[in-house]
Structures are given as structure tokens and as C-alpha cells.
Structure prediction request, 332 residues.
Amino acid sequence: MADNKMTPRGPVRSSVSPVIDGRQITHLAEVGGYSSRFSKPAAYAKPLARGRFECVEYPAGLSVHVCDLEELDVTTTDAELSPRLSFLLLLRGEVNFRLNERAFQLCSHTGPRCAAMILDASTRWERDLQRGCNLTKVHVTVSPQWLTQHCPQTANRVWSLSLQRTRDLPIWRPSVRAFAAAREILAVDNPQAELQRLHIENQALLLVAEGLSALELWQQDHQRTGSRRASRIAEVCHYLDTHIDQPLSLDDIGRMFGMSTSTLQRYFKEVTGMPVGDYVRRKRLEFARELLVSGGVTVSQAAYAAGYSHPTNFIAAYKRHYGCCPGSERNI
Prediction:
């Protein structure tokens, strides 16, 4: 279906738009099961947004956050999130946030987007408010207990995609059904009324079902991408191993393998568990050790071969890595 059929046109609901201060945001966060703080103490009493910001809590670990507002100030809010699965469906605006200091951005400029926050451990959440940003989103969260009880066959697969394991945030274009469910939730006038609570819950469950189906497709694509990524990084490692005695520049390596420096660093750490620089230093120390053990070079010569300008720094790094001074290796 064409994107324009999934693009909000004007405000989602018509009502007087109340001003929301930091205290109200903090209170609603507590209703949602977590404690929210602001980087600026004055933010608690200051108008931060104008519009609608609500939380609907259900028994057994299901909650729905509804947001349809304009942000009025620049500040940062942070919270400690317990393990959870959250589907964030963004209909309008952009959200800049960090999970354990890893930055993410969700943007609706080319149409609605959905992201899955899969947290299998306590995680620090930080979000930047932006003055003038118009934001419309629905956030559905379920606890690990809820997911295990209602979707036991799916739960293990979901937790295998957690941020702590993949260091990635699944993002996709929501289905028409998911988009319609979010609109239905946003159209509710009184979310605390009994029948309207039931309606929100029904639409939230539909969003969870749609999200779990989309996650399965995302995982298949992620596995294919991960395999290709691992193959590319293996080629990078082979190049580094065979040119370890030569000057190595991240910019040059990135260009050689068709990646920016930041992408190279991110992919390399995902696959090997360490930055490129740490890998090169380790390999150069191994190269220096081979030279020392085979004989014929001094410690200073080994240091220069390992890329160190000063033997003193080489000796300290060598001792940290191997637990002995490089001079003792020449006697092996």
C-alpha cells in the first residue's frame, strides 16, 4: 500500500492541549513502572510539552503509552528500564534516544516507523527533548513474564534478539494493520473508561502480534546481513594480518573495503568483540614476540616493528599483554 495512506494528516484528535511539566512526565513514568529523571532540575516545574501524554496500565505486565504533543523545551530525561519488550510505533516526528549510551534515532520523515526495544537486563534509557518537535507515537510494553505466559514458543527467539546480545535495534515500516491499531488507540478520548480500556488493550495486543511477526522477518534478514558482515570483516582481518608491519590507516582500510570509518569500527567490534585499533595492537605485539623469540632483533627494533615510537611504551604494553618483559623473550 502506498505510503501516503499511512501518513497522519493533521492532529490525531481534537481537544484542548494541556501543558505538561516535568513532574507530570515523572508521575506517568512511575505509573508505567520506572523512575524518570531530568538533566536540568528546573525541568520538573517547567513546561516541557503541550498536548497529550498518557499511560494505561494492565494487570500481568502490559502497558500502553500514548503521546501526541509538541515539545516546548530542550532537555534530557533518563530512566533505568527493567527487562521488557517494547514496540514503539512512531507516526509523526523523530525520537533521539540512547540505550546504555548507544545512540539511536527513529524518524517518520518518510513514513511511520516501528522499533522493538528488547531488553533482557536493566538498561539505562536517555531521551533528548527538542523544542518545536511535534511527536505522535504509541508505545506498547510487555514484561518477560507476560511474554512467557502468552507466547511461550516465541519468547526464547525474542530474547535472542535483545539489545545486550545483538547491540542492534530492530526498525521496520509498520504494516497497515499496525498503523490502523495505533490510530485506534490515539482516537480514544477517555483511556480510563472501562470499555475504552478494553478497546485500547485489544488494539495493543494486535500491535504486539504484528510486532512479533515483523521481528521474525527482521531476524531472518538480520541473519543474512550478519553472515555477509562477518565475511567482510574476515577479509579486513586477513588484510590487517598480512600488512601488520606496515602503516595502517582506518580511513584507507575503510575506503578499501567500501565502508566509512564509523561503519568499519562498528562492524569490526560486532564481529570480533574489539575495536580495530586494539586488534592491530594485539597482532603487532604478537609479531614483535615472534621476532624476539626467533632472535636477531633488539627490544628497540621489535618495538619499532610493532609500531611503537618509544621502546618504553612498547615494554609497558608487552608486559601488560604477556606478563613478562620483552627482553626475557630473547633468551627463550
